Amino acid sequence: xxxxxxxxxxxxxxxxxxxxxxxxxxxxxxxxxxxxxxxxxxxxxxxxxxxxxxxxxxxxxxxxxxxxxxxxxxxxxxxxxxxxxxxxxxxxxxxxxxxxxxxxxxxxxxxxxxxxxxxxxxxxxxxxxxxxxxxxxxxxxxxxxxxxxxxxxxxxxxxxxxxxxxxxxxxxxxxxxxxxxxxxxxxxxxxxxxxxxxxxxxxxxxxxxxxxxxxxxxxxxxxxxxxxxxxxxxxxxxxxxx
Length: 242
Fold this sequence. Notes:
Elements: E1 10-15, E2 30-31, E3 34-35, H1 36-46, E4 52-56, H2 60-69, H3 88-101, E5 108-111, H4 121-134, E6 138-144, E7 154-156, E8 162-164, E9 182-192, H5 193-199, E10 207-211, H6 223-237
Parallel strand pairs: 1-4, 1-5, 6-10
Antiparallel strand pairs: 2-3, 5-9, 6-9, 7-8
């Protein structure tokens, strides 16, 4: 049974730590006229479903930039949650715990990653709508795999000989003849708080998905990803310098 007749409080958490080995300083790196972080803050602020939009960071410069963009930064992330080994779930739980200690609780929590700046507000709204209407535990965004489909993938042995991943050569195999598969793309993550605390994950037997097109699925982990995302933004939105 859906839960759409109820009113839910929804927290948007934007995780943005200072350290990044793949692309140093990426969260504040200018992208299409403003820092990368600001794109995700803008998405969250424009989504009417959110009660609160918070940036979780360990970096004072990111915190200052986030506040300028309109997000809340009521605390600094502790050092143990600022390293490469810290999980996103631990960051979300820390944020939820902080608010609960302040006397504020939420029904739903979402993670809006700065590394997926090609999302649109409609992607957030669709994810929240599905979560509430289905009454499921969590919703994540996915994108259909095309050239990366396992039917077209290979293993490589120690002699560099390729071996079909599925055990069958894809000779004369057409994409339209194989079952579609999907990868987790990072555009949206949402969960009822009780389910996130129970599973400590967005992925479990009660996880549903929303699908995004290929162009939205690009995530920024290095300078090459950044260049591709920037090119897509210019293609779709125009050159802000023109």
